[in-house]
Design goal:
The protein has 108 residues and is mainly α. Helices cover 63% and strands 0% of the residues.
Length: 108
Amino acid sequence: MMPRLPQSPNKLAPIPGQRLIDEQTLAMIVALASETIVLRARLDTCERLLIDAGLIAPDAIETYSPDATAQSQREGLRLASMRKIFRALHESAEAELANIPDAHGAVT
């Protein structure tokens, strides 16, 4: 049996002089890479099991074309995922922008 893959990445060691936004970006990339590795392994398992059981043809996934409903659902999932993935960067950028003085020197 294959060893279980980690469910979350380990915290990275701090890099001297690194800005918070850089740390958040690097953490996001590591988390996404870890998630992608786990997802690809699980998807590969599902595809192999379905093909071995004769439930789908080996090329069924590559030739699949979603209908309008499935495509709309996929787009909703894509948008929700992008919001989740970039949330930390968005919040950091908003906080940074809130501390920039306007033309009169007032911080918004």
